[in-house]
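Complex record, three chains
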Amino acid sequence: MNLLNFSRRNALALALLAGLPAVHSLAATDTPTRGGTLVLGSTQALRHVNGAVQSGIATAVPSTQIFASPLRFDDKWNAQPYLAEKWSLAADGKSLTLNLRKGAVFHDGKPITSEDVAFSIMAIKANHPFTTMMGPVEKVETPDPYTAIIRMSAPHPAIVLAMSPALCPILPKHIYGDGTDLKVHPRNSTDVVGSGPFRLTEFKAGQRLVLERFDKFFLAGKPYLDKIIVNINPDSNSLLLGLERGEIQMIPYATNSTELKRVAANPALNLTNKGFDGIGAINWLAFNTAKKPLNDVNVRKAIAMTIDKKFISKALHGGFSQPADGPIVAGSPFAIPDLITYPLDLKKAAEMLDAAGYKAGADGERFKLTIDYLPGQDEQQKNVAEYIRAQLKKVGVMVDVRASADFPAWAKRMATHDFDLSMDVVFNWGDPIIGVHRTYLSTNIRPIVWTNTQSYNNPKVDELLNTAGGLLDPTKRKAYYATFQKIVTDELPIHFINNTPYHTASSKKVMNVPTTVWGPASPYDEVYLK
Amino acid sequence: MNASDQPEGPWAEALRMFARNPSAIAGMLMLSVVLLVTLAGPWLVGADPFEIIAAPMTPPFSDEAILGTDYLGRDVLTTLVYGGRATLLVGAVAALLSVSIGITLGALAGYYGGRVDAVLMRVTEFFQVLPALLFAMVVVTLFSPTLLTITLAIGIVSWTGTARLTRAEFMKYRNLEFVRAERAIGASHARILWRVILPNALPPLIVSATLAIGSAILFEAGLSFLGLGDQNRMSWGLMIGASRQYVLSCWWAVAFPGAAIFVTVLAVSLIGDGLNDALNPKLRER
Amino acid sequence: MLKLVASRLVQGLALVLAVVVLNFVLVHAAPGDPVETIAGASGGMDEKLQAELRAQYGLDRPLPVQLGIYLGKVARGDLGYSYFFNLPVSSLIGERVPATLALVLTSVLAAFLTGTTLGVLSSRRPNGALSQTINVLSLVGFSAPVFWLGMLLVILLASVFPVFPVSGMRNIASDGRGVADVIDVLYHLVLPAFTLGLVYLAQYSRLSRAAMLDVLGADYIRTARAKGLSERKVFYKHALRNAVLPVVTILGLQFGNVLAGAIVVETVFNWPGLGRLAYESVLRRDYPTILGVLLFSSVVVIVMNQLTDLCYRLIDPRIKTT
């Protein structure tokens, strides 16, 4: 217990409490208190707050406060009403009808209608980086101001999930429909008119954002918070200190094991790893299967066998991450338990390399490889890469860790397939159609980062994924995805290492910390401060 | 006065003055230690600085690692010993580069004067106006951080001080008697510049060169700290930058490499100071 | 006089132009481009969208054309829009300048005053104990890496003994107004200014010591002594006045180094200034912002150089025009 971290405020509170008679413990049914400012800490600078044209968790956090979406999700992947009171997916899966609630208004007072929903969905289709999300959407019909019917060219099971706050912000057509390219629209960070529980009142680029309660939010009585301040500080250490001192109340997406340990040990703070199944982040080792010797699956398997995932999770991640064995995160309804794994076995790895024809030379060296990693996430990326280097050396594979000074340098290497091995972290984004297919479809081998940069080509897998992408019945889909996972873990275009251990660290004063499948990338309309 | 009482030459005198200066001697000793550790150390220690030898963040003075381990479990002592090489190499070569450029341009400007001087002075001013660190960062980022690009970047932005100094010196010397005599007997410009004036102008330039090494080391450390060092070579600045996130739990991974840089630069500065005192005639009267 | 100012103005402008062109060429000539950053930052972007963005930013035009357009804009005071934030570069810079200014002015001035005092004192008895101590101490400040000092200070005075804030310029939730805010900023300013100031302190103390020693050896000082003036008068009235001149000159010229020192300190302390903006923009390949900051800082340096030069001439009429 670190007495030096005890701020005077804490001491005062403690003194007051000590003088009070024993009070009942606060039950979950306690009435939320209205008011207060929630200060969030974030290490990533964000470009703007329009989640319709920008993916990523940094943007999603403020975007989901500023913009509402047709639906929202609970912690069991069930859709809940939000802007849409009712919704129904047609039996053939080719249309989704949304019945919007009446009386909802934008921050400038104008009503939210189906026109805005139609505009937003088509804008997302045209501009959002996730092309598969609204891929089959052809048009959105608006028979009346409160009904929107999304018409798709083929059954698209992901469409319901695509209505989430993080993926489908509803933009005001009267502001954004002026013909300016949405990606560079000036109203993305200044004078933002949104549809959600909070308005953007300050945007200091790279420093902080201030959001204030929107009094006419369509859920009466909410949000409870007066203000949310997002404080941007690239140094996660300082954010932690701020949390310990009470200056910051919540740090979503914390992954650093040292920090997580400190939070866990602090009685005034809460730590939860719930709320991250939606984004489904996997840390993995990608192989460039188009290059020798990685084109040989046995070489890839041998490499996999030099990696001790348990050590990585325990020693490198302080026990906060879980080993990942497949392309779909464990928390997804489509995950299966029995996947092919590659337990640590240096001897077998050496034998496999011998058998593959890569015998060690006189100096003990078989061949050289380079490994890249995504900069900026050392514990998940760089450290693992260096660990892999040390391990591969033991079987005679000499690895050169190539650092990229910044993201564009790394992205370019991946995009141009100028790599042998690379660490990467990729999100599932809920439905495999959105975030999983892109990595394994042979039609997605393109010169862009976060596509099938591994040059993996298996027509059977293409067929499985494309079929699963068009079926509505989740049980049937699961069967296809099960086969898919088995094949991928056998052919190993990627060796999965661990689930990125995202956690939300918060002060015990923060109640109703969002832990639905989308976690912190959801509206905080129910969050309040004790 | 007989032959044995001949006044000693200026270099011998300087050497004697240097040897009498306690802080200069201290500097030499410190630098020797650093060089010894850096050059011979890797052989003695033998290990791979990138290898994980113990649990991450073991505190110093423990059994496994006398200076502790960093956030990955690598031995701080080993990385310290290996890190010196990259740091000193970059420091020395970058200083050499900047001093060479500076002396060449300064000499030409000071000696020829007129048009040549005007043009060269504009160039010097241009590089002086450029924000050095920022420019170096841009160069290093754009061309990928390797020891080569870092050395070049540092060398290119650091020469203006030396150039000005050299120019001032050469301007002073070009009108002196013995130089004019050389011209009169038909010596070439090149000979006069490099064989006649330069040896005389050397003292302040040596001091400047020594200090240039110190500032080049600090510059490299700064770039590495900001994440723009050569990631494949262990250097002290790199260690500090990499361990920065964990400084509150693992201060030794930051404190020791920083101390190493400090000691090295201090040693070089003390030597430079000592040289300045030894070679600077004005101070001899005091 | 007017002619001098005018010619210096032209020289200054030519320099600025050269800086802009060089940086522009450099920044565009190397591998990797901002659309890729934005693509990555957006979560991946297909070729069509990337091509749209490239056209949007004019990145698909030939380099000389882009340069011409940029120069034209700069001439009108338009520094373009940041690729990353899509906000005007001039407003991004404008937002950050006060923070850097506060940091730099405080540290440089404090360092100048303290350092000069120490240096002058140590020149009284140049071989005495005090002088040697001050000399070595200033060498210490000079040799320690700024970021290392900063981090150690943070550990000591913001974590182990939480006397000062760890980072930032203000309390996170503050409104940024009123006297309370000024005090808040000053409170946050202590550690970063101290860290940055230590380096300058070392420089000024050594410089002023050397300058004083230089001046004390001059003829007119010997004359003053011969005339029978007290040592005190000689020292403070005559020597000091003349020794201050080169130090003040350096003070003016220091502004060239300002941005460099600020980058590192601002990064360690998360100070929301120009240095940090520059650093982050380099990592993001945010060309317009990088160019804007380079341009701005070059202009500041040039202006300061010219001002210092003019002041120097005004003060000391013996200096001839080069």
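Note: Chain B touches chain A through 26 residues (CB under 8 Å).
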